[in-house]
Specification:
Strand order of the largest sheet: 1-4-5
Shape: elongated
Structural class: mainly alpha
Number of helices: 10
Order of helices and strands: EHHHHEEHHHHEEHH
Largest sheet: 3 strands, antiparallel
Radius of gyration: 29 Å
């Protein structure tokens, strides 16, 4: 069954982005929780029960192409438009398998369905790493609309690429790919702590434009028999990048994040935060700190005891007529 999910990390796996936000990403957490709850407590797993559930609730390209639920003959034969199918159980015709199914709302429901724990964890992990910054820039209402619309566009791209398929499409990564596309436009220089599985233990910070760019290019190398709907990934990513580029000047401004500095090495206890030195510029900007009040000025006379009386402006040896 094709899954709209993040492929296995054959090249890079982002672990953390050094890109702090100014507020808690409640909606990112909510989307993650919904995906986990649906998979853990709503979806049946394994056997005929799982297949029936997916055919009743997931989006299917053939259904969108014809504007109606699949018939029993189409499910048994695997052919869109089939009117009769025979198997050892019996003969099947044009009776709809799920007559009450809304094939258009199924586009939304499919974003919260997954095929396995690995499929689920891959999607929500990418959403956790990159979603908080996009939520902050788009605002909460804007993020919900953007996330859902990215998933819809990704699904439609997959349907256009394989409109005769009778196999359900499930997974959140069409929407997650949209988030990643927006991230590469808005935060291309953000440092992403990345694991390179091909080098086993190599974990390094890499700019987001490289990490996400490699992920995007690897979609075109996906094995056609892997069951991964990679066209949906490409469609969602391109949509997210295009929307972020078009709206980049209208989005919420970048936050100014105050951090607590660590105590210097060799000291005991915790260093007190210095108000003049606690701001760390986000998103890879060049660090800068204002001068401490106790620092000597960079101009004027050298440090020493304060002068008293009038300033001596005459050359040495020519004081008071001497």
């Amino acid at each position: 069954m094709p899954t709209v999910g993040v492929p296995s990390p054959g090249v890079v796996l982002p672990l953390y982005d050094d890109n702090p936000t100014g507020r808690v990403p409640y909606l990112t957490i909510l989307f993650i929780a919904l995906n986990v709850v649906v998979f853990a407590f709503v979806q049946p797993r394994g056997g005929e029960a799982e297949a029936r559930f997916n055919y009743r609730h997931a989006v299917i390209p053939c259904e969108l192409d014809q504007g109606r639920p699949l018939s029993e003959a189409e499910i048994v034969s695997g052919e869109c438009g089939a009117t009769r199918a025979v198997d050892p159980v019996g003969t099947f015709g044009t009776r709809e398998f799920a007559p009450d199914k809304n094939v258009w709302l199924a586009v939304i429901w499919s974003m919260f369905l997954h095929g396995s724990w690995l499929h689920l964890l891959g999607n929500v992990w990418f959403l956790w790493v990159f979603g908080n910054n996009i939520e902050e820039r788009f605002g909460r209402a804007g993020f919900v609309a953007f996330y859902l619309l990215a998933g819809v566009v990704a699904t439609l791209v997959q349907v256009l690429a394989d409109h005769g398929s009778t196999i359900p499409l499930i997974g959140a990564s069409g929407a997650v790919a949209g988030v990643m596309g927006a991230y590469i436009v808005l935060f291309p220089r953000a440092r992403v702590l990345t694991w390179w599985p091909m080098f086993l233990i190599l974990v390094v910070y890499i700019p987001a434009v490289i990490v996400l760019g490699l992920w995007f290019l690897m979609q075109f190398a996906t094995d056609p028999n892997s069951g991964v709907a990679w066209q949906a990934h490409v469609g969602g990513f391109v949509f997210g990048a295009a929307v972020a580029f078009a709206l980049r000047s209208r989005l919420r401004p970048l936050p100014v994040v105050t951090r607590r500095r660590r105590a210097p090495r060799g000291t005991f206890g915790t260093a007190r935060p210095d108000p003049a030195h606690t701001w760390d510029p986000p998103y890879g900007a060049t660090p800068w700190s204002p001068p401490r009040p106790s620092d000597p000025p960079a101009w004027g006379p050298p440090s020493g005891p304060p002068a008293t009386g009038r300033r001596n402006l005459e050359p040495p040896g020519d004081v008071d007529g001497a």
